Amino acid sequence: MTARPTAPDSTSETTSDVPDAAAAADVATTNDAAAAAAVPDVAAELALEQAHVDRVYAELEKASRRAADVEADGLARGRTSRTGDVRDEEMTGLFERDALVYAAARRRSMIDKQYEGLVFGRLDLGTEQSTAAEREVRYIGRLGVRDDDYEPLVVDWRAPAASAFYRATPVDPMGVVRRRVLRCSGATVVGAEDDLMVPAAPDDLVVLGDGALMAALTRTRGRQMRDIVATIQRHQDEAIRAPSRGVTEITGGPGTGKTVVALHRAAYLLYSERRRFESGGILVVGPSAAYTAYIERVLPSLGEESVALRALGDVVDGMTATRLDSPEVAAIKGSLRIRRLLARLASRTPAGAPTTLRAFIAGHAVRLDEPVLRRVRSDVLRGHQHNLAADAARMALAEAAWRSVRVGERDAFLEAFEGSRDVDDFVAAWWRPLDPRELLLGLADTEYAYEVSRGVLEHEEAAALAASYRDALAHGSWSVADAALVDDLVARLAAVQVVEREDVGFYDIEELDNLAAYGVQDVRAGIDRRVTTNSQVGIVTPADARARLMMGRIERSSWYAHVLVDEAQDLSPMQWRMLARRGRSASWTVVGDAAQASWGDLAEAGRARDEAFSGQVRQAFHMDTNYRNAREIFDYARDVILPLVPDADIPDAVRETDVDPVDRLVDGADGSMAQAAADAVEQLLAEVDGSIAVIAAGRWVEQVAALDGSGGGRVQVIDPLSTKGLEWDATVVVDPDGITAESPGGVRVLYVVLTRAAHRMHVLRPA
Ligand SMILES: Nc1ncnc2c1ncn2[C@@H]1O[C@H](COP(=O)(O)OP(=O)(O)OP(=O)(O)O)[C@@H](O)[C@H]1O
């Protein structure tokens, strides 16, 4: 039997020999279980693999039952009834083994059947000359399983013993003769694809299919990203298993697997240093809620659930933001100069605070006027965060009051000041807890915005900022850029401190009588949110947008042991600072492609990013193979970006469909664009089996909105910026020039849009 090249890999020399998409599709079909019956070799091979997979599942069930029994019987009984036959350490070893396998069984139950196979790979190790008896067979899976004799039935894909599965190439076979990828449906083996690592297969070794990678890439895309654990390529594996310390940067053009590699890296870190990363936590941050929904299955499919997955608007605990500001406002809120404005907001006397302290203390009339109070405030804030400083403020007031009197006993005066009800009332109003959100909403008043931004923002910028907070109040929703501002203010002020008794969030209201005290204006039956109370269930609707904006409690940031940032090129400097607060002692994985950036000032963002990494060592990995787009689609996108961004990082697209994108001029008649988009969608529904996106410039959105959800839910209408990081089988791009003109990143955003389709793309241009 002759050898066939392995799947494409930027590090191997066989990329040009990749079979075309049609051939790969044939492979996928011939390997179906049904088809397999007609091909004796395949059927026999699959039956052999099935026998092993059955053994693995049986072992897991057995171990799970045994471990449950051990738990029920109790460890102690095992110890006290031990005889000379079982030595202590043997006993402990058995328990440890059971505990390990039990943990594996639990993780297996987390890996839902739909995640395509607990066992997905097999290595035959030996040489071209070795016989079946001489070759070692090693199975690779989503987790490790051992049999009763502690022999491995499956090796966890992240274990060192599995690395040859990903690293072996014909140039450097690492002792591998044949690498086999198994395709399973639940616990049933339905197909296999082989890559041969030696020039010719030994006579007794069957080689199936035309390579697993092409089969995987040709498959239909769903609404959510899939893991690539069975077909990770060598250069991807190097990034996945890179040492955890410092900063790991993964760059590359569109569709090069940066995201999926970074997610597998998170799973690898949890495996290789579980104690550190599970207890310290891993934070994964992506651009949007659509993105987090898209990738949220990948880590659970690898058996890992202990990762915090957040969109940029959800990074601050207690706050959810999805709305996008206009590019001008986003630029103001994202740039570091806004910090001066925030510093002013945090140190100003809050609106409505009393301006004079009058009290009768130890027989003396005390009066402190505004200038003195202002001085006291700024002295206190020099050493404290506002929300932690009520006591310090009171002491400073007492000193100022004493200095204004200086008659009688100082200690007696201070004691009287401390016990004064008048002072209590004054401090409660003058130094009330400040919620950062309240300070930002104060900017909705244009005059106030002018005042606090003097010397920081231009007049028009301050007006735009004020308008953005009036928008927030109109919508009852924060913008994504606001999250970083709230976070900055929390760092300055500290979170609002809540006394235990008053620790009442919107959803935990204790007395329905007193809802107004918690910002809830309206209580009605039968609608909206459910609130459980001590003895009754009430239904609460926040009556106005302000209440919605202030809902929940903003918490101080948690720290993580590792922070993974995707689409890092889009983070504003303020967003880098927000992440830096969560990654003070973290290692980082940072994923991005500058040519896809929608943030304007890359230099300022670069500095903020360097600061976040605080001088840690860096290692860089570059991905140069585009696994997403058919070559015809990527060529189209490349021709758009290169003239305008000549240094764009252009990857090599490895899959061809022989179908060029459709590029159509649509006349300006009313309804023509809607009709053209509907026609394109209809054609694509017939041509691809999976997901389709209609991505339209703002002015066309209404016209194409009706397509959303059509095709039995396969069609999604989405705005250009929200497509970051996502992909579909086919896309319809409506008005590319309009997308460029309206987007903060201009043609870079259009480039993102044009690189989302795996198999087909239609581009509609208004004439
Ligand atoms: N080794 C692989 N095996 C199978 N599929 C792969 C492999 N590597 C990448 N892919 C697929 O390629 C597609 C693109 O991957 P991914 O979204 O991670 O790329 P990206 O570099 O983050 O893209 P972009 O920057 O354009 O958002 C996904 O469908 C992913 O599953």
Pairing-aware structural class of the strands and helices?
A: alpha/beta
What percent strand?
15-25%
Biggest sheet character: 6 strands, mixed
User: In total, how many beta strands?
Assistant: 26
Please compute the radius of gyration using only Cα atoms. Answer: 31 Å
**Order of strands side by side in the largest beta sheet?**
3-4-2-1-5-6
Shape: globular
Number of separate helices: 30
Bound molecules: adenosine-5'-triphosphate
Mean pLDDT: 83
Region (Disordered): 1-22
Pfam family, one: UvrD-helicase
Protein name: AAA family ATPase
Domain UvrD-like helicase ATP-binding: 231-630
Description:
This protein is of the alpha/beta class. It has four domains: 15-218, no CATH class; 234-316 and 557-623, P-loop containing nucleotide triphosphate hydrolases (Rossmann fold, 3-Layer(aba) Sandwich); 351-430, no CATH class; 626-766, Rossmann fold. The chain is built from 30 helices and 26 strands. A hairpin with a 2-residue loop joins β5 and β6. α8 (234-240) packs across α9 (258-272). The structure holds adenosine-5'-triphosphate. Residues 213, 216-217, 226, 228, 231-233, 236, 252, 254-260, 593, 596, 627-628, 725, 727, 755 line the site of adenosine-5'-triphosphate. Keywords: ATP-binding, Helicase, Hydrolase, Nucleotide-binding. Pfam families: UvrD-helicase.
Map the helices and strands.
Blueprint: H1 21-30, H2 33-36, H3 40-73, H4 75-80, H5 88-110, E1 119-125, E2 136-141, E3 145-146, E4 152-156, H6 163-167, E5 176-185, E6 188-196, H7 212-218, H8 234-240, E7 247-252, H9 258-272, H10 274-280, E8 282-286, H11 289-295, H12 298-301, E9 307-311, E10 321-323, H13 327-334, H14 338-347, E11 357-361, E12 364-368, H15 370-383, H16 390-405, H17 410-419, H18 421-430, H19 436-442, H20 446-452, H21 459-475, E13 478-479, H22 480-493, E14 522-523, E15 529-532, E16 537-541, H23 545-549, E17 562-565, H24 573-582, E18 587-592, H25 602-613, E19 618-623, E20 625-630, H26 631-641, E21 652-655, E22 662-666, H27 672-687, E23 692-696, H28 701-704, E24 715-718, E25 728-734, H29 736-742, H30 747-754, E26 757-766
Parallel strand pairs: 2-4, 7-18, 7-19, 8-9, 8-17, 10-13, 17-18, 20-21, 22-26, 23-24, 23-25, 25-26
Antiparallel strand pairs: 1-2, 1-5, 3-4, 5-6, 11-12, 14-16, 15-16
This protein binds adenosine-5'-triphosphate.
Adenosine-5'-triphosphate binds near residues 231, 236 and 593.
Protein name: AAA family ATPase
Pfam families: UvrD-helicase
Keywords: ATP-binding, Helicase, Hydrolase, Nucleotide-binding
